[in-house]
Design brief:
Layout: E1 9-14, H1 37-54, E2 55-65, E3 68-69, H2 72-75, E4 80-81, H3 83-93, E5 97-105, E6 136-143, H4 153-159, H5 163-169, E7 173-175, H6 192-201, E8 207-210, H7 217-225, E9 228-233, H8 239-246, E10 255-257, E11 262-267
Parallel strand pairs: 1-2, 1-8, 5-7, 8-9
Antiparallel strand pairs: 2-6, 3-4, 5-6, 9-11, 10-11
Length: 268
């Protein structure tokens, strides 16, 4: 992410592509259906390394990720890939401090990927029901080592949370409904997630970065909360979605590299 100055970003908020979930037919895609799991984790580690380079000392890296189920037709058996654990190990090996984990509960029982469909397998007998209908994802919080900045009092006052926000946002479990309108993107996370993370881990006027911008949800929250947002997206099909969500003109997308299929959006 050469367009971004090193040691300049207060907070990074992102949700990387799900492993083995969808083939976007993009050469540079991470987690495509033909990628091995080892390659997926290795490719993500390159992103986390670059994120660390861009963060301010004491800056926060917030990663929303679930463990993904195998595909029996391909892997030959049912199991979970330990994505949350492997992302955590990758970031720790890069020298980041694993400072917290939030569990995002997306809905009531059987409101997950299976949509309430029956879980067969050995039904109605133990022990091999097909697989649990996951209704939660993790939000992993990592901190770059270093001393916090000194923040002017007026900026601190503009950035403070209400008592109710403080009590709710600092809970370890967030119950937030999923985004039902996908806006042309298959896995949009609700704007309430970046909204809370931005308020917890940045000040008004700070730079917030999303290296997997998708439809632009993180920058939508930045716009609402007075932060400067930077996002990267390699899928050109999302350019119009970002424009619509942020109510921007194409001219506001400051760099779009057709050769590298990389969109760099710096929103101030």
């Amino acid at each position: 992410m050469d367009e971004v100055k090193n040691n300049s970003v207060a907070c990074i908020i992102t949700s990387p592509p799900y492993y083995n979930y969808k083939d976007y037919k993009i050469k540079e895609q991470i987690g495509g259906v033909s990628d091995t799991y080892t390659q997926y984790i290795s490719d993500l580690k390159k992103v986390w390394r670059e994120c660390k380079r861009k963060l301010l000392p004491n800056g926060k890296l917030c990663i929303n990720a679930p463990n993904m189920k195998s595909r029996k037709a391909i892997e030959g058996e049912s199991f979970l890939y330990p994505i949350v654990a492997d992302i955590t190990k990758s970031c720790i090996k890069l020298g980041m401090v694993f400072s917290d984990e939030i569990i995002w509960v997306k809905g009531k029982a059987n409101a997950g990927a299976l949509g309430g469909k029956p879980l067969f397998g050995s039904y109605p007998y133990p022990p091999n029901f097909k697989i649990l209908d996951s209704i939660q994802e993790s939000i992993l919080i990592f901190r770059k080592k270093g001393k916090p900045r000194k923040i002017p009092l007026d900026i601190k006052e503009k950035s403070k949370l209400s008592k109710n926000q403080w009590l709710e946002y600092t809970q370890g479990v967030w119950s937030i409904p999923p985004e039902h309108q996908n806006h042309g993107h298959s896995a949009v996370f609700p704007v309430e997630i970046p909204r809370r993370l931005i308020q917890l881990y940045s000040f008004v006027g700070d730079i917030v970065l999303d290296p997997f911008l998708g439809s632009g949800t993180t920058l939508q929250a930045c716009k609402e909360l007075g932060r400067n947002g930077i996002g990267y997206e390699i899928n050109k099909n999302y350019k119009k979605l970002i424009d619509q969500k942020l109510k921007l003109n194409y001219a506001d997308i400051t760099k779009f590299d057709e050769e590298k299929t990389k969109c760099f959006l710096n929103m101030k």
